[in-house]
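Team,

Forwarding the record for the chain on the shared tracking sheet. I've put the sequence and predicted structure together so nobody has to dig through attachments.
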Amino acid sequence: MRAGCKMRVGIDLGTTYSAVARYDQANSRPVVINNTFGKELTPSVICFLDNGDVLVGEDAKDMQAGGTGAAAAAFKRAMGDQSFTVEAAGAQYSAEDLSAILLKKLISDAEAVSGEKIDSAVITVPAYFNDFQRKATIRAGEACGVKVLKIVNEPTAAAISYGYSGSSEKTILVYDLGGGTFDVTILEARKGGIEVKGTDGNHLLGGKDWDAAVSKFVAEQFLDEFGVDPRDDESAKNELIVASENYKKVLSRSDSVTIQLKHDGNAGKYTLTREAFDAMTEPLLLATREVCAGLISSLGMSWGDIDEVLLVGGSTRMPQVEAFLRELIGARIVSNSDTDLAVVKGAAITAALYAGDSKKVRAFEIKDVTAHSLGALSLRRDGKAYVNEVMIPKNSKIPASVRKPFRLGEGNMTDVVEVYILQGESADPRDCHVLSKVSATGFENDGGGTEIEIEYRYNENGVVDVAAYQGGEPLIIESEPVPEDTGWMGEAPRPAERAVEKSVVICVDMSRSMDKIVDGVRPLDEVKRETAGFVRELAAEGAVFGLVGFGDKVGVIRDMTSDQGSIIGALESLKVNEYGRGTDASPIGTAAAMLSSRSGVRMILILTDGKWGKRDAAVAEARACRSSDIVVIAMGFGNADVSFLKQIATVDEGAIFTTIRGMGEKFSTIATAVKKGSMGLREGGSSDGGKKERIKTR
């Protein structure tokens, strides 16, 4: 090994086969580094022998085929699964442990063949790998003493390898069918970059399932003929599994294959045609179609939007795959002879780009996405159940982050906030992965109502991180073990943990005066803009809204809804004079009726710039609201009458007079009061008023 020589590599840690590649600067191309057997691909198989020896790769697969020792294969499918273990020679190995053993072999072979020391690597993973699986992959790499520069999604790596970053603009569907996983990714290729639009997949579907179909066919034929099932014998089963992969490959080149099987003193000979093979495995192809169709639908696309289909993974060599996709999509199908190596070559290019050590690698931009939504355990709006509240939606561009406020109500003196992080699409927490539990400490809390911010992040590797802040300053975040029993997430929360409902009816003056330019702006335009911001802020707290317009008459523009987009869209549609040119009608009674069936914090927010005609009726309606514990806030500007605002406001400081330009600050004050529940109500005044994002405080 040459002293001082260090290299960065790309590693395809595959379910069936793995490979290592580097970027050859002299020839400006990625080059696969052969293993010590002189082969580009290394079987992802480990064999534990009775004498304590551990074989990896070619030797291990030979032992597996001969039924010798305890073989471990396809363990990539179990990455991140704490319940998966392989017991051998008195020890237990997780999928992460096995991956580290395989990686160590890959690295040592590459170093022996190249004569150079590997110090860092880019490792590929299925696009659909979750946080557990990505972190387990990184740890496996680090356990070998290698710095993991980056985790890159396999379909993205393949697209990089085939040079789509330098192509004319086109939309590509990457159909990645490997030995143990299936991914579909839709990306836009353009000169200078690749932008992933979305990804989906099934990490329990791959070429191994086609192998299993062959094994099942042979075993059942043998069982029918001799009354003995070879799968009942571990050694015979392993031999059949290895042989079935070869039979599958023969069927990719021939119309039929003859299969011989000897077991328990019996010898069987069977013929499997490609037609029969295609028929028995059709459900597997249909399963990939379901994933593809779901992704296309979620992105608002159609099959016709696909310009090209790129086949990736050795399993796409089966003729049935290309024929299936041609009929399904109709777009140009692109297959390459080195499809097994596309991912590792793309990883090698990424390693060179990421390290910035090669001027000969043409720089381009890679924009990838996350395959899973990131959420937090929260309370449903009615406070009767826990839900997964999505913070960062699936297929968001990464890196991505979002901050959400977390409020401790008056009298709550806790100094620890516990947060449960979830990954998944379901609103039911039990259908999601509970990734972690973290505690935020170090914040100031005088019991008068405290707010901190929790930040949820996906880094560029698609790995999850959490941070917390108070007043912009970072807080202490500590990870804690996730309880083994999370069944309580499906139970009704304790009453003390239930969030207070918040319902707001916004009443907008639409008289002609709202069209006159004041301070360089049209009042109605500023009302729309600031009110939309107010809606967004309270919508994050689970508030529901209604929208009423008024002038000489009153109209319900949008009934109570939790859809902030619907309310904001209705705001945008407001037009001056739609309900008359003056202000003779009071909206308070109409708004109160909309709130009559609601509970918790109920508020009517009136925005007006003029003098009202029939004031006595409005004052009487406001008094009725006070008796019903409905808060009326009256915000006036322009020619609004301050004394009248005070008459219809039902709480102290509820009459607000401001300038057009000062509305934003006043909206913020009102929003804070609503979130705290401190609106002077008998019900809610002492609530914690903002614990929607409280997970568990104990």
